[in-house]
């Protein structure tokens, strides 16, 4: 890698390095003066289709998108495009950065820290498809290959646009992680639009996405237990109403028969 020093700046590269089946690219430079200096990254793709490992997710991805980073099983690749970055060497969270991540063929199994969300997903999926309640309840989230926007500002790393599918459900994540690891995020659970008409019970329940606040830290995320309990209560209530309504409708049909529409006079 070429290294050049001029006018108080240390230019690195350009370089391209093989890494985990993909490539790392860049031509950053270090502005050495005034101290403590800063790292400047020009626009471009810096990570190109690098395979994701559990360790890579825990140490890096969890700071951008915690719902993926805290997984027990991870499979897929990631690319990172940077629109530009200026990061003080002594305080990276005090700088500025913007860009996007693109995940491909990414499947994750949520870890134990995300069990409150997993429990809600299992309950919803069981109501939509009762067979799920008696089968394998392992939750496998498939991440859509859509850009996840990220931005470093106000000492927080923000993300928006992460979309995951699990059966007939869609989970969206947005929010931020602070320099101290604190979380300020929301996970939204909704029914896939293409099948909402086929399951009116859940379609009515999920006319608007179920928003679940996520707080705590990267190491110990905490979902709002009160919000989840309230959602589960709505699920039970709506399911009971649907069963009663369906049973009443069937009983009336059996009692009165199924009258044919009146003929239109000619």
Quick one: biggest sheet? 16 strands, antiparallel
Total strands: 16
Q: Give the count of helical stretches.
A: 5
- The oligomeric status of these chains comes to single chain
Helix content: 10-25%
Structural class computed from helices and strand pairing: alpha+beta
Order of helices and strands: EEEEEEEHHEEHEEEEEHEEH
**Overall mean pLDDT:** 81
- Computed over alpha carbons, the radius of gyration is 25 Å
Proportion of β residues?
35-45%
The gist of it:
With 266 residues, the protein is α+β, with helices and mostly antiparallel strands.
Explain what this protein looks like in three dimensions:
- The chain is of the alpha+beta class and 266 residues long.
- The protein has 5 helices and 16 strands.
- A hairpin with a 2-residue loop joins strand 12 (156-166) and strand 13.
- Helix 3 packs parallel to helix 5 (225-256).
- The chain starts with a strand and ends in a 10-residue tail after the last helix.
- Mean pLDDT is 81; it is low at 243-262.
What is the element layout, followed by pairings?
Blueprint: E1 3-6, E2 9-12, E3 15-19, E4 22-26, E5 29-31, E6 38-41, E7 44-51, H1 54-59, H2 66-69, E8 71-88, E9 96-110, H3 115-128, E10 141-143, E11 148-153, E12 156-166, E13 169-178, E14 183-191, H4 200-205, E15 210-216, E16 221-223, H5 225-256
Antiparallel strand pairs: 1-2, 2-5, 3-4, 4-7, 5-6, 6-8, 7-8, 8-9, 9-10, 9-11, 10-12, 11-12, 12-13, 13-14, 14-15, 15-16
């Amino acid at each position: 890698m070429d290294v050049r020093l001029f006018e108080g700046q240390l230019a690195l590269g350009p370089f391209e390095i093989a890494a985990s089946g993909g490539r790392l690219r860049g031509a950053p430079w270090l502005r050495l003066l005034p101290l403590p200096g800063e790292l400047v990254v020009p626009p471009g793709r810096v990570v190109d289709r690098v395979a994701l490992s559990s360790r890579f997710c825990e140490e890096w991805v969890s700071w951008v998108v915690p719902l993926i980073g805290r997984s027990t099983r991870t499979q897929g690749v990631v690319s990172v495009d940077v629109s530009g970055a200026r990061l003080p060497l002594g305080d990276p969270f005090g700088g500025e950065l913007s860009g996007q991540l693109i995940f491909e063929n990414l499947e994750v199994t949520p870890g134990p820290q995300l069990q409150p969300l997993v429990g809600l997903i299992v309950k919803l999926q069981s109501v939509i498809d009762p067979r799920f309640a008696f089968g394998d309840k392992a939750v496998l989230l498939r991440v859509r290959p859509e850009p996840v926007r990220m931005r470093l500002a106000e000492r927080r790393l923000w993300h928006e646009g992460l979309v995951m599918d699990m059966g007939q459900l869609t989970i969206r994540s947005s929010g931020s992680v602070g320099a101290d690891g604190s979380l300020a995020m929301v996970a939204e659970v909704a029914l896939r639009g293409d099948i909402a008409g086929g399951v009116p019970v859940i379609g009515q329940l999920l006319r608007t996405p179920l928003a679940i606040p996520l707080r705590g830290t990267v190491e110990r995320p905490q979902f709002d237990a009160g919000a989840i309990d309230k959602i589960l209560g709505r699920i039970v209530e709506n399911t009971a109403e649907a069963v009663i309504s369906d049973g009443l409708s069937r009983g009336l049909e059996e009692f009165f028969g199924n009258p044919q529409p009146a003929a239109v006079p000619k």
